[in-house]
Amino acid sequence: MLYWLLKRMVLGPLLLTLYRPWVEGREHVPDHGGALIVSNHLSFSDSIFLPLVLDRRVTFLAKDEYFTGSGVRGRLTAGFFRGVGQLPVDRSGGAAGLASLRTGLGVLGRGDLLGIYPEGTRSPDGRLHRGRTGAARLALESGVPVVPVAMIGTDAVQPVGKLLPAVRRVGIRFGPPVDVARYAGRGDDRFVLRAATDDIMRALMALSGQEYVDVYATVTKEALARQREAAEHGVALDLPTGAPAPGGLAPGEAGPERPRLDDEPPAPDAPVASDAETSPADDGPADAGPADGSGPGAGGGAGGPAGAPPVAPEGGVRRRLRRAAPPVRGAGPRDR
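RE: above sequence
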């Protein structure tokens, strides 16, 4: 009830008048039945503008910190997020990740729209970061359409850390559903989940025009925070390996490789590493956003930064990575 009151009578008319959002590709969102709406994440206001331009209700999975605050402010914040159609999710991984998956599947099973941010958190520098596998898990478990959407200009309206938004026009661009049917029935294989996730991120990169970087947004956030702290003391601190500085992939770095499946012809000179070099499994939906354990610093996992060792499991889907290719600035998840 509060959702529709805010959307149609209180916030909705005011925001539509002030921000005049432009919309492309709205026809790609189904008129009925469950669907997964996957979006890039630039600003807190993404979760307001996105449902504003759709006739159907959109439910988001949001970090549980928004629902557990204390005092009057905490209760008001929790009430607002529930009112605008968001559900609390524990993003600590493990059992909490499975609970997040069940929560999302419940929304989709009711025939509703579920919004999710594959990056797991807002981009700290405006680039598109490596996706977590939660969206792919939900898509393969539910079988619903996966509709990508790019939020454009919301970071200028309300940058990270800014409380009051500026008045600027924003854009919302929907794309055709991402085809993940080829992965059906293999959602328990982490390499398949990574392949499907990279397909989703590739679609978001094409829609948004953002530069893609193959590290998790949380890694970049931490690295930038350390840089700022060091700069205050007059110390120049480099970003860790696999976290390029803002502005693109560093010289000598290549974009992420896409897993090769059994039904695809092998790439020339594609070495396969031993099973001992495989990385930990991904576990849990994203934003939701529980850590999936296969990112930078996890031993050079699947689709990791250039220079990580190629990996392949003994059974199931075999993953082959090419040797370091010539660098492509701003390259996204690659087609083979």
